[in-house]
């Protein structure tokens, strides 16, 4: 298949059901729109239902809206319950929503906002919906990371919630590194089932609202440089769409833009940082995430895997 992968390469999605978080704007909107245009039944899982309804009205196809606030475990449980009641199956769960470089603040459950939203929220949602995916051949969980997973990034188990100090960039990097580690550990657990795959993607530098919380010193240069170094949300969504729909995509793979430094370009397979592949850290993060969210997945760790902890 040509490396110039576009939405024209998306196979027919008739009969498939996709849930896309944060789908009322930006990358999520473009992802949901493309899937609906190819025939999928798409659920926009969004915090602001009114904005979600307006986004759905601009799309063609079978599109509906589900309230979901990833900063609240109560909201996540309520959304998962509603989705489980209304959907017979889920073929695609696109963990797209996120926050970036927020000032120091917490989720409703007291977790650092970026880690709590980007990682813990999607961890909980996936665990609560996974049994609607396991019986579905070819189903996929696609979680969106970022090149930011390489920047000052580590999983700070001694201070996961940044209570002793706070760095916007480092906290964002931790959350995006966690997205990748979650994907890789989830794929190991799914491998014995043979039906559902976990895949990751990142959009490069895309012109979206995500960077609205960037410090002023960064916002101004980014505004000047944006036409040169960023790509449109439609292009930024292509790695996600390829991870979700390319028949050749495999569990545990990571897709990003194919241009220089993975900043922009058509999607291709990419490699994440060496730290992201640390199995013992992935497993420790999984155990901590289960404790913090109270969500247990219907897939067990591989026999003997936890011995490396």
Automatic annotation (TrEMBL):
Q: Which SUPFAM superfamilies does this one have?
A: NAD(P)-binding Rossmann-fold domains (SSF51735)
Q: Which Pfam families match?
A: adh_short
The record, for InterPro entries, names:
NAD(P)-bd_dom_sf (IPR036291), SDR_fam (IPR002347)
**Residue ranges of the TM segments:** none
Key word Oxidoreductase present: yes
Recite the UniProt keywords alphabetically. Answer: Oxidoreductase
* Family statement drawn from the similarity comment of this UniProt entry: Belongs to the short-chain dehydrogenases/reductases (SDR) family.
What protein is this chain from?
A: SDR family NAD(P)-dependent oxidoreductase
Species the sequence originates in: Paractinoplanes aksuensis
